[in-house]
Each structure stands twice: as C-alpha cells, then as structure tokens.
C-alpha cells in the first residue's frame, strides 16, 4: 500500500530533504502540503494543517516546522487519525512529546520522533564496534558557523528554539544511540545578551562506570566546521566525523554504506506504519532539558545576524 502523505512547513529541510526523498520513495506519495509562504508542486498547498486535513484524503503527515509549533499540528493530525512524522527535535518540551505519544497510542496511529543523524552512514558501525569495548573517555565537538547554516532563522534563537542545541541535539542523538546511558554533572551555557537561547554549551557528563564524557557545542566557529565524536577505548580510538558520515578506528578509515539519512528515516516510518508501531525516543531532548536544569549560564556579547 502506498502511503499518501502531506508536508507541513515548507522551509529549508522540507525542500532540501523531505520532498526529494519522498519523490524517490516507493512507499510514499506526496500529494499535498500546508504552508503559509511556501508551495509544493504536488497537488494543492493549503494555508493551514486544519484546511489540509479537511480537504485531503491522506494517511500521514510530516511536520517540518520549528519545534515551538509542532505540538498543536501533531495533536490535530493524530486526532484526525493520521500517522505523524516529527522532524527533530520532536517538540519544545519533553511533556508535550509524551502527551503526543500517549494520544497516538490511544488513537492507534504511528508517531515517529525522527533523529536524522542516527541514520548517518557511520553510526551503526560505530555502535556495533563500541558494544564490547571499555570506554576511557568521550569528546564531542559540534562547532559550526550559525551565520552560514541558519541565516535569518528568528525561531531558532527564541525560547523553545534551543539555540546551539538545534545542531547539538544531533550529536546527542548519536551519542545516546552508541554509548551506554550517561548523565550531566556540570555545564556552562553561553547566552548572547540579546537572545533567549545559547550560542555555546560546554557540557560534562559521566556514566555508571565514571567515564568522562564532554560535549562542546559552539555556533561561533568560522573556517572549517567540526561535527566530531571521539571515543577512547581499551581497544583503540574511534572517531566519527562530519556528523557521523565518516568513521576512523585508530586512524584507519572504515568502509561505510552510502549516505541515506532521510531515506533511512522514511524507510523506518513506512515500516512502523506497516507494523502498527510508534518510535518516540526522547533521550536526546532529555539531555537538552537537563542542560537547562543543571548548567550554569553566562551572558556573552550580543549576537547580530
Ligand atoms: P525553516 O527553513 O526556518 O523552515 C521552517 C518552516 O516552518 C518555515 O518555512 C515555515 O513555513 C514553517 N513555520 C510554521 N510556523 C513557524 C513559525 N512560528 N516560525 C517559523 N517558521 C514556521 O527551518 P528548517 O531549517 O527547515 O527547520 C525546521 C525543522 O527541521 C527544525 O526543527 C530543524 O531543527 C529541523 N531540521 C533542519 C535541518 C536543516 O538543515 N535546516 C536539518 C534537519 C532538521 P511555512 O511558511 O510553510 O509555514
């Protein structure tokens, strides 16, 4: 059965990934969208999700807006009996995501909280290699130029937009997939004087074995960009780099499958729908919430786009 799907929020990620991947998928037929400003060339683009749900015969929706407005859209879609794909992060708070999970269960539809970085080419190989190793230390560095990657995105700096955790949560989604459980012991959030969300975070975690795990997220990096996770173990050093797309063990580059992050997400969404299941893992979002609970805050110089 082909799943008829509509996209909500036609912005950067909808155009870069969702639309081309859905066009190439044998499981889905993209037939409509809801967008205030954007348009798609697949049937009618409605102004609101309510209009789209009333007018269209669809099975599923993909919610590609900022996290602050995802809950309301997901709630009405689930109430209308649609399967729902949530872009990352799945919401602006933990509780709203858990309410959606409960609502989807009651309604008998699939809810998928997607974490695209978990589908990066090196992640599964890294997870499998680390599974029987003793960890000595972990160092995560996610440092990028916000002016390059998020030009003019006001929502990302507002409350619930998460600031540097918008990319940082991708690192946390990988770390929570490849490492044993860990928790925050101390941290520092640097927040520009004119913004609600951090521009940098320096986080110290540990696990039950006492492994030091440090994550540095910074949006002020110009020049080469860094999206690395380095794990020192009793059997050598694992380095996942370029957002999980490259993997080296003791400096030796590992052969990996081709890049297929969003194809992997939509294959998973289709499989969940076929099995009548949901996948709502809030572990990466919980670490962000913990950072807001446990870390110190420092005001830093105002940030202008
Ligand atoms: P974006 O380009 O700013 O687009 C978001 C779209 O959501 C807007 O075009 C807008 O479309 C809609 N929208 C609805 N309510 C909005 C509101 N209150 N404020 C702003 N936009 C609103 O953002 P994006 O980069 O696509 O990111 C969207 C989500 O995808 C975020 O959660 C982000 O973390 C995630 N994501 C982004 C990337 C990336 O590379 N950019 C990668 C992976 C995941 P309409 O005019 O159509 O309503």
TrEMBL record:
InterPro entries: Gfo/Idh/MocA-like_OxRdtase_N (IPR000683), Gfo/Idh/MocA_oxidrdct_glycsds (IPR050463), NAD(P)-bd_dom_sf (IPR036291). It comes from the Bacteria. Residues 3-112 form the Gfo/Idh/MocA-like oxidoreductase N-terminal domain. It holds the Pfam family GFO_IDH_MocA. GO terms for molecular function: nucleotide binding. This is Gfo/Idh/MocA family oxidoreductase. It comes from Sphingomonas glacialis.
């Amino acid at each position: 059965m082909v799943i008829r799907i509509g996209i909500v929020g036609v912005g950067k990620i909808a155009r870069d990934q969702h639309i081309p991947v859905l066009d190439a998928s044998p499981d889905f037929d993209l037939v409509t969208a809801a967008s205030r400003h954007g348009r798609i060339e697949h049937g009618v683009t409605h102004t609101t999700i309510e209009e789209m749900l009333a007018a269209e015969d669809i099975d599923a929706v993909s919610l590609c807006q900022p996290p602050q407005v995802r809950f309301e859209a997901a709630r009405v879609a689930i109430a209308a009996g649609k399967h729902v794909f949530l872009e990352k992060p799945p919401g602006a708070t933990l509780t709203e995501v858990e309410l959606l999970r409960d609502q989807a269960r009651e309604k008998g539809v699939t809810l998928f909280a997607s974490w695209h970085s978990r589908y990066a080419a090196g992640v599964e190989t890294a997870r499998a290699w680390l599974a029987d190793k003793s960890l000595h230390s972990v160092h995560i560095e996610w440092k990028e130029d916000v002016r390059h990657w998020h030009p003019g995105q006001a929502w990302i700096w507002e409350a619930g937009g998460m600031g540097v955790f918008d990319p940082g949560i991708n690192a946390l989604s990988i770390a929570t997939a490849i490492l044993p459980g860990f928790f925050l012991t101390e941290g520092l959030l640097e927040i520009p004087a004119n913004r609600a969300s951090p521009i940098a975070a320096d986080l110290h975690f540990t696990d039950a074995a006492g492994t030091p795990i440090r994550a540095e997220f910074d949006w002020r990096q110009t020049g080469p960009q860094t999206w690395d996770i380095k794990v020192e173990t009793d059997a050598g050093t694992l380095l996942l780099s370029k957002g999980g797309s490259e993997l080296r063990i003791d400096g030796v580059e590992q052969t990996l499958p081709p890049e297929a992050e969003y194809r992997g997400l939509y294959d998973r969404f289709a499989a969940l729908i076929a099995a009548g299941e949901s996948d709502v893992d809030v572990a990466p979002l919980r670490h962000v919430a913990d950072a807001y609970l446990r870390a110190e805050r420092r005001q830093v110089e105002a940030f202008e786009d």
